[in-house]
Amino acid sequence: MKRVLLVLVTLLFISTLAFAGGTGEKPGAGKAKSIVMVVKLEGIAWFDNMRTGVAAFGKDHPDITATQTGGATADPAVQAKIIEDLTAKGVNAILAVPNDPASLVTVFKRANDAGIFTLTHEASVQQQVSYDVEAFDNTAYGKHMMDVLAKWMGNSGMWQPFVGHLTSTTHNQWVDGEVAQAEAAYPGLKMATDRQEEQENQQIAHDKTLELLKTYPDLKAIMGSAMTTVPGAGQAITEKGLIGKVAGFGTCLPSVAGDYIKSGAVISIHFWVPADAGYVTARAAYELLKGNKVTEGMDMGRPGYTKVTIKNNESGVPVIYGAAWVDVNKDNLKDWINPDGKYKL
Question: Which DSSP letter does residue 343 get?
């Protein structure tokens, strides 16, 4: 009887080894690697579109899972907590669009210590990441938007820049470019007051625009950085009956600002395709997981990123730059509308 039990126990042990990977592989070996994008906040069109790019990358690369998450508010503390939770879960790569790059350095360090790759998008000064991905040079983008605004204003008059958060590196770099271009090329332009923070909230952008219009009756243009500024300003301009006298400009999507472009409350919007940025950032993470590097001139598989350039930031982090900005105004808005009348983006 004892011999029979011994044989049964031995057979059970052998079968357990085989089930767990008796070939020498650890249990769970071969499991798809996981890439997670943590955006500033969920529930807005910009990051809804980015999710499609992250998901598309996962579909194109079945050896990994690629997903997106984010907080219900654009709160740096909430974003940091999400990253801490992902670190505890043991994902393989964490990607982020930071609300406040400095606030993520410590949590990124913990992730790195756990063997997790970290990357960012829209954070060219970020520390503690393997790569940051930018759609373009931020200063050049800001200068370009200022050229468009200045032309409509006849190179003179009062304008006002907005940022989502005063801690947002990318938004402030755009405004820095706008201000530099205005000072260098358009001495007739005057900024009403210090850059305004609207917390990536359309209602706040609307309310602050109304306040500015009251305080500065000569104000002609609002320049937005967060996607919520342009529709907020467009709504305020419309309510005050100032279409043709005051206009909105800045970073936004056709689906959010298109109707204001049609009405003339907004003259021009500028953006990069979030889905492409999400795809390219996931691609950079994928290369790391494969033991590769992203190199100068590399084709990252999306328009505007077919021949990337790479420059190290002050912390020595390689920043991957594309050339992917898009301009939309009343002349080409139709190109962003589907036959059913819905906006493509």
Answer: B
